[in-house]
Automatic annotation (TrEMBL):
Listed transmembrane segments: 45-65, 77-95, 101-123, 135-155, 167-185, 197-220, 226-247, 259-280, 300-321, 333-353, 359-379, 400-421, 452-476
Location within or outside the cell: Membrane
Organism: Labrys miyagiensis
Coiled-coil regions listed: none
Taxonomy, superkingdom: Bacteria
Domain Major facilitator superfamily (MFS) profile: 10-467
Principal localisation: membrane
Membrane-topology annotation of the record: Multi-pass membrane protein
UniProt cross-references to Gene3D superfamilies, sorted A to Z: MFS general substrate transporter like domains, Multidrug resistance protein D
Name of this chain's protein: MFS transporter
InterPro entries per UniProt: MFS, MFS_dom, MFS_trans_sf
A Pfam cross-reference name: MFS_1
Amino acid sequence: MFASSQRIAVLIATVLASSLGFIDGSVLPVAIPAIRSSLGAGFGEAQWIVNAYMLLLSSLILVGGAAGDRFGQRETFAGGIAAFCLASIGCALAASPSQLIALRAIQGAGAAFMIPGSLALIARTYESKERGRAIGIWSMASGIASAFGPIIGGFLIETGGPEAWRWIFWLNLPIGLIALALLFAHTPRLAAKQDGGLDLVGALLVTIGLGALALGLTYASDAQPGVLRIALAFLAGAAALMLFWIWEGQTKAPMLPRFLFTLPVFNGANLLTFFLYFSLAGALFFLPTTLIEALRLPEAFAGSVFLPFTVTMSVMGAYAGRLTDRIGPRLPLTLGAGITGLSFLGLGLAAILQAFWLGILPAMAVMGIGMGLVVSPLTTTVMTATEDALAGTASGVNNGVARIAGLFAVACLGVVASLAYRLCIDPALVPGGYGEPMVPMDPAALVMRTSALITAFLSVALSAALLSFLSAYIGWRMLPTKAKRS
């Protein structure tokens, strides 16, 4: 039984630490144009500034959850926060794109041990009758941080000059230190399990596999892609993932129990997750660049696009949970994915019309409605697809699938955007590739560049819409009308 002050300390610490991860994911796309200009990063390097973080997070998140059970939730959670904050200091001081990419990878590894620990700590310190309220507060506070983080980050970049993006990383330090102080000053050490192990071989294989595939896609987005290096990257990735699948079938403590993929409902939920979160991550990565570089909006405006999305998603999320209890997950998931697809079409049209207030913002609000209908039913479906003892593992796998989708979205849709951009410009008039910082050019070249950037985003938005509609079809065909055990 934990004292009230201890439970409050845990809740505040988990909110602060989770906010680090959520803010990081939503602020970076807004900061990418400034980072590219400051460090002279190419398009592929800009992709990996995001992807390095996503790669390590998605590869290690299941290991991070298991480490909390094995070594203690508080210690593992605190270790993740410490690694994240130390890497943030390095990111703020980075002098080259390669340094920033390497440090972002360390940030992702820290987040993989930090994010699973937040809800696990709440579950360990709050009794069942209070747990729902605590998780609700955690979710609301984290959502607010995600919504306002890009606005604050955009304002800092807009007013602080070309190097102000570094403050995005410096701000992680006081938040992390407060969370650590609360953990160790007010939270007792929780008993750890003494059995089980960590699947480090599996983590290494899946990191190599996913990383090689993402690298191959990055090569494909180059202005002059090399066929041989693309093929080698894909072959290395496929081989590593095949070895990972074999290893998971024979190790005693697999990070990915293979039998889960014999469950039709579990497979359907993860397919829907992959395609829908692929669409979401891809569109939201390229949207801020389009607003800043093509529509020439201030960074603070570009950051504000996430606010209507977060607000409507939060409001709709509370309703979707009750709706799922009444009618099951199929209809909310199908409608939610379909509405999200329509919002991507709206974003593409708004970009063509260069309509921010009457186009981009309303489309983002519609996207929030669609995703709000998805999140709660999807979680319920995944966690009820297998027995209670494996509900946490199933949820962790689904979380990993969502993050892997984000990793591949930035790489795959980067190929789409880069190709669309190159088809729309005359290299003799418009120097540089997709999204590179603007240099002085004559008015005709500027019009061509703007049109090409908008066309590139339109191609991304259309791709995202099609994949969202595919998600809706999967939801209707593969998921049950009532959440029930397989």
